[in-house]
Design goal:
The chain has 13 helices and 24 strands. The chain is of the alpha/beta class. It has three domains: 59 residues, no CATH class; 184 residues, no CATH class; 163 residues, Rossmann fold (3-Layer(aba) Sandwich).
Length: 472
């Protein structure tokens, strides 16, 4: 018999087959409360449902928990486990090998009778859990005697060096691991995933790690680099492979807890006594870009008029600033202003929306039918974090390839001469088609009008609104 079922955390599912929309079908139930999900997208994902929702469609955290202890025995009929969420292992070694340009973790159990397992983690690109690595029995050829030993390892997901992609995991990792990180400040961070190079961790990883550690950034990254290049064994390894529903207001409490913990650790690194950041007199932070794309072509004129019209504005180039200092600066702001990019996407979550009225002003490069999905990122994150959002579209600066591609189908029937020229220059690549590779020209009068609205919305403290944090 097939019946509807949505299992909550801690509940023991009954035997039989249950339909779990929209992910798939439960294919058997183990006595320890684990369930096997079969769907069109994937096979063999195992874990209980969370917050009254199925594993693939959790309301808040994409989460499932399974603990393996020294005495853990594989469930009958399941000699190979499939795990996701928060997993605790003892007496294991981790080393990385290179797959193309990515590092892949190899987790070796030193227990003679330990279960083997596939480790699944949330994948924001596919919006589902996918395979991260294998937990296997040790072999003589592993030569684990030469590995260094640590007491506690904390494994967490890294996707890329982009703040937006890390935002799927940073608050979830803090939720799962913060208590253990506080108890053991010397815990070693273990990168999980495949979207990063083996040779060198990126400095942007501090965005995720800062809520878990008050160590200087250089020391954190040096330790991770040693992890990637050598074999490390742990008395205990606790791994979390959760993701978070980044656009859901149900995630707001996780964001705020992650922000507060990050700021507390930033102040510890900087030697500041108070964990609370005061509102700066110039609390409208205009992030300027000194990169090769999405630069404001008329920046000098825009900056001059904006500063003359609004004395609360200050300008900052984050490319030239340590991430610790970036977090500290955003914590004193009430408004973020800038062109679409990872600075806005990442730091809108660090605005103190839980303590005062905050807002985000996004300058949006004019989207088109080829390149537009990204335009929902900052508005969605702002709403989820309780930050007022103000956005306006800016035209692409002259010379942007999209000006040609937007109106022309590159075929011999439309404009053969231009088409052939574009093909020769390789302009049919994704980069050429994306407006995110263009600079922008800002209408200063429109920008000042939007900035005035943001200033008004954040000038006077007001009652909290569930739709968007503290509202004017």
């Amino acid at each position: 018999m097939i019946s509807s079922a949505r299992t909550t955390t801690g509940a023991q599912p009954s035997s039989g087959i249950h339909r779990v929309p929209p992910c798939g079908q439960l294919q058997g139930v183990f006595g320890n409360g684990m369930v096997r999900i079969q769907s069109k997208e994937t096979w063999g994902i195992v874990g209980p449902a969370v917050n009254g929702s199925s594993v693939c469609n959790a309301t808040e955290l994409f989460n499932a928990t399974r603990l393996l202890s020294d005495s853990a025995a594989c469930p009958s009929g399941a000699p190979h486990l499939q795990l996701m969420g928060t997993v605790a292992l003892s007496q294991v070694c981790v080393r990385y090998h290179s797959s193309h340009v990515n590092a892949v973790s190899d987790i070796v159990s030193l227990h003679r009778n330990q279960c083997t397992a596939d480790l699944f983690g949330y994948n924001e690109y596919r919006n589902m859990f996918s395979l991260l690595g294998i937990i296997r029995q040790g072999r003589e050829s592993d030569n684990t005697r030469s590995c260094r030993w640590r007491r506690l390892g904390l494994g967490l997901r890294f996707s890329s060096n982009n703040f937006f992609h890390q935002s799927f995991y940073a608050a979830a990792a803090h939720h799962a691991l913060a208590a253990m990180a506080r108890e053991d400040p010397n815990a070693t961070f273990v990168p999980l995933g495949t979207g990063f190079p083996q040779d060198k961790p990126t400095r942007q990883w501090e965005y995720t790690l800062r809520s878990l550690s008050s160590a200087p950034a250089e020391r954190m990254l040096e330790e991770i680099q040693q992890m990637l290049k050598s074999c490390t064994c742990f008395e205990q390894l606790v791994m979390t492979t959760n993701g978070i529903q980044i656009f859901s207001k149900n995630s707001r409490a996780y964001y705020w807890a992650y922000r507060r913990s990050s700021l507390m650790n930033v102040h510890a690194v900087m030697g500041l006594a108070s964990p609370l950041a005061k509102r700066a007199s110039q609390d409208m932070l205009f992030i300027v870009r000194h990169t090769s794309r999405r630069v404001i072509s008329n920046e000098e004129d825009v900056n001059e008029q904006a500063l003359a019209a609004q004395p609360r504005i200050q300008f900052a180039a984050f490319e030239e600033m340590p991430i610790t200092q970036q977090i500290a600066l955003v914590s004193t702001a009430s408004v973020l202003i800038g062109v679409h990019g990872q600075a806005l996407a990442g730091y809108v979550l660090h605005l103190p929306a839980d303590t005062r009225s905050t807002a985000c002003v996004e300058i949006v490069p004019a989207p088109d039918r080829v390149s537009h999905a990204w335009s929902t990122i900052v508005p969605g994150l702002s709403k989820a974090a309780g930050v007022r959002y103000f956005g306006f579209v800016a035209e692409h600066s002259p010379g942007c390839y999209i000006d040609y591609l937007r109106h022309i189908n590159c075929t011999a029937q439309t404009n053969p001469e231009l088409c052939n020229s574009m093909v020769r220059k390789g302009l049919r690549s994704f980069q050429a088609k994306s407006v995110l590779y263009c600079n922008v020209t800002v209408n200063t009068a429109v920008l000042l009008n939007v900035i005035d609205k943001a200033a008004l919305a954040t000038a006077i403290a007001s009652n909290y609104s569930d739709a968007g944090g503290f509202r004017h």
